[in-house]
Structure formats: C-alpha cells, structure tokens
Amino acid sequence: MDIKSYMDIEDDPIEIAFKTYERLRISDERYNAFTLLRDWDEIQKEIEASKGPLKGLLLPVKDNISTKSIRTTCASRILSNYIPPYDAYAVKKLKEAGVVVVGKTNMDEFAMGNTSETSYFGPVKNPWKDGYVPGGSSGGSAVATLVSGAPSLGSDTGGSVRQPASYTYILGLKPTYGLVSRYGLISYADSLEQIGVFAKYPLDLAKVLYHISDYDPRDGTMVRDGRRGRLRNSLSRISTGEDLELSPERYSIAYSSKIVELSDDDVRKLFYRSIDLLEEMGFRLHDIDLDFMEVGLPTYYIITMVEASSNLMRYDGIQYGLLEEIGDYFKSVSITRSRGFGEEVKRRIITGALLSSKGYEGKYYLKALKLRRWIRDSVKKILDVYNFIVIPTTPSKPPKFGEALGPKGYIHDLYTVIPNLTGNPAISIPMGFIEGLPVGLQFISRWFSEDLLIKVAYLTDGKLYDSSKEVG
Ligand code: GLN
Fold first, then answer.
1. Ligand 1 centroid, distance to 138 Cα (angstroms)
2. Do 397 and 350 fall into the same domain?
3. In a domain, 381, yes or no
4. Cα–Cα dist 20/144, whole Å
5. Which of 108, 159, 168, 428 could make an S-S bridge to 440, C-beta 3.0–4.6 Å?
6. Does ligand 1 lie within 6 Å of residue 157's CB atom?
7. Prediction pTM value
8. pLDDT, tens digit, for every residue of 395-450?
9. Is 142 within the bounds of a domain?
10. Residue 263 falls within a domain, yes or no?
11. Cβ(333)–Cβ(319) below 8 Å
C-alpha cells in the first residue's frame, strides 16, 4: 500500500515521534536546518500530556513564527535573545490538535532571501548535493520535512515555501491571502505573506491546513465568508482519505510558452514533459498570453521593500531584542540596528525608506500598487475561465552557495511572486531533477481552492517524474 500520510507509518505516537526526532537531529547536524532543536526529554513529556487527532506529530516551525517560551529570532542577531510570551495562532491551533513544537527552523534573516544563506546561525545546506542551497527563505523547514517526512510550517511572502519545496523535492503550499491567521507571524511584508505548509504526502498538507485555517478575529485581514467553511469541510474529507480523487477531464489548465521561455533550457524541458503528462492524464491545456507576469518581480520588490522598512522600524533594541549600547537614544538605536541587522536586511530597509520618501512615492510605490492591481485583475480574468495556471516554480535549478546572494538572486523569484501579489493559493509539486538537483512545478488556482491543489498533488504524486528520463 502507498504511504499517504506521515502519520500512517506507525501508530504509537511516542515511537513515531522518536524516529522523527532522530531524523530531525540529522537534518540539523548535517544541514543546519534548525536555529533551535529542543531536548527529547521535554518533548516526550509534552507528547505524553498532549491530546488530539495529531498527537505524536512533531512540528518544525520556521523561526519567524512566534512560539510561546521558545526563542524566536527570525535568524537575526537583533532578535537573537527574544522569547515570545505567546504562540502564533497557527501554532496554538496545532497544539490544541495534539502537536508538539520540536524546534525552530533556520531561514534567511527576516525571511528576506531565497537561499537560506543570510541566517545569523549560518547557511542551510541542500541534502541533494554538496555546495548547493536548499532555497529560501524557509530552507530549514523544507530540509526538516525532506529528511524526516514530517510536515512543517514556513512562511511565504514571495515564494519562501514553494521555492525551497521545489529545490528539495517536496510539496509546498501557500494558502489564499486571508485564509491563515498571521497573528504571531513576524511581519516582513504583511500585505503579501501567509503561513504555509511543507509536506512529503499530500494528505498531510490537508491535515495541517485544516487546523491552521480556523477564523481568528485578531488578524483583521482574514477573509470572513462562507468560502472558509466550505474549504475546511473539504480539507477534512481529504484528510480522512474520503474525498481525494479528482477527474482531470473536468479541469482546464492555462500556461504560457512565452513566459516559460524565461527559464533555463533544462527547466523548460522538464516543464513541457510535465505538460504532456498532464494532458495524457486528461487535463485540458491551453497556451495563452501571461505577459503581465514579466512585471511581477519589480512590482513585488518595490512593495516588499517599502513594507519591510516600515515593519522593521520597531527593532530599536529597547522594547525587546538586542540592545548594544545604552546612552543617547539616537546613537544607541543606530548602533543596535547597524550591528543587529545583516547586509540584505539593511539594503531593503534603506531602499524601502527611499522608495516611499516624500517626492518619490508617486514614482515607484504608487506605480507598483497600480501594477499589482493590474496583475491581480489579469489573473482573476484568466482563472474565471481556466481552473489552474501552471508555470515552473523557479526558472532554474538550485544555485550554488553565494551565486544568488543579494539583488542578483532576485530573478529566482520570477514565477513565485505572482500568487503573493494576487492573493491566490499556489503549490509546488516535484517535477524532476537536473544534474541531481530537484525542481518543481507550480499550480495556481482560484481563491480558497487549496483543496483542488492538494488533490492535484495527490493525482500527480510521483508521476511527473520518471527517473529513467532524467534530463541533463
Ligand atoms: N525571495 C523573496 C524575497 O526575498 C521571497 C521571500 C519570502 O517569501 N519570504 O522577498
């Protein structure tokens, strides 16, 4: 029988948890996946005391998601001693379902990056090949899930769940904007980000998403209408295996050969092979114009830098976090910030402040907001006609360490930023390998149709990639 869920492997919660813990320790020792891994003794006690349908599930949580009494640093020196007094809503809901937080996963500082190299705790390594990045910014969570099989939490502002999922050969889902509470998610660019889920098995995406998508009045951007209830019912039926099947003949997919031209040759070859396979399965495929995608990247970077510079103002070292010098207010804040933040974070704070400063705002930020509206309307029009938009998750295979650091690496976010700008849910599904390194295929769907994305993942599980046809 196929293993469809991590939790089905065995049924003694302590036994599953211990095996998982051993693998997670390996992911930490070999690949630096964690900024903090808790002691087994503490964890065992918590499992024994836990109750709920997910009892025994150990949860790796990205280090920008607040965890009560467990250090949460955003992989930054400025928060290196910060211990939150409360849990993020998503964490609280999972704990209520029986989950135990096993530790905090390594990431790019403040989730700004796509390589997981800019962490104050050192870079995360890609288990598939020495010398290569696992993607980011949620690289630690992706590696933890790859090595252990257990699902994990990440955050996705412009691809930080889907991109590392693609580079590690697992599933990564970014929910609809407003589905999952951002309460306790430390903000980078809050108009775009959602907590997302990594999993090896499609069913586990449904299980975790079901629990974290409950309505939370403390996040004012949560969508409050009947779509949440419908989706959650569907996720619960998927979790039990009751309603997993999808008839491809009933669904249409839009893609754009022109936009795929922007990828490396090897990614393109794998993409077209996937398109052929999807067509063989019965999906109806349509090559259409998706030209608006070309302006996604500058639009995204202008908006996120402006939001980041405003969000990161709060780190003055006085209320919490690092305080480097006591004395003159401006001097101590300035010293704390210059020593506390890394280079990429500073670059974005400074650029964001400039882009939104008086006299400049109309030139960049307001234009970016208009472009965002245009992209959003364009995606809506397309998804009114077709069920899915399919594009590669990334335009190339995982880069080597150092190769994609700083602005030269922004291009790797070309395809992932679109659903963040529009709010649509999107998933990355393993598509194949290029010279021993994995890449993913991205499905974007209508708002609140995460259930369909999970069903597509289930339907295509292991089918898009046939090792006998390796490219390269
Ligand atoms: N790589 C993108 C950025 O640096 C996305 C990061 C994210 O999703 N957190 O902004």
1. 9
2. no
3. no
4. 10
5. 428
6. yes
7. 0.96
8. 999 999 999 999 999 999 999 999 999 999 999 999 999 999 999 999 999 999 99
9. yes
10. no
11. no
